[in-house]
Design brief:
The chain is mainly α and 93 residues long. The protein contains three helices and no strands. Helix 1 packs antiparallel against helix 2 and helix 1 (5-25) runs parallel beside helix 3 (56-85). The protein is elongated and about 45 Å long. It starts with a helix and ends in an 8-residue tail after the last helix.
Length: 93
């Protein structure tokens, strides 16, 4: 049985957010922005998919991927949030 398409999307998001975290650590903002745009497209695509109830291994995989995405997001924020606080208030939004 093939995994639901949403799993594939989450796998792509996990990979993209991992690359974003690497780019942020390297302060490669051009690459970061490119990856961020790809990530946004994947997230928008995920919203178009019909919700599919998951059980068993696919559900466990989805949860694992979500945890990975959240960990990557935390790594990105550790780099970007201190930098953003140095900007003047009007530029932060």
């Amino acid at each position: 049985m093939a995994s639901p398409e949403i799993i594939t999307v989450y796998e792509r998001l996990a990979g993209l957010t991992a690359q974003m975290a690497e780019a942020a650590l390297a302060k490669n903002w051009h690459n970061f922005e490119t990856l961020e745009n790809q990530c946004a497209r994947q997230a928008a695509y995920a919203k178009t998919l019909k919700p599919t109830p998951l059980t068993g291994a696919p559900l466990k995989r989805k949860i694992s991927l979500l945890k990975e995405i959240m960990a990557n997001d935390r790594s990105i924020r550790e780099v970007t949030e201190p930098w953003q606080q140095q900007l003047p208030a009007p530029m932060r939004h």
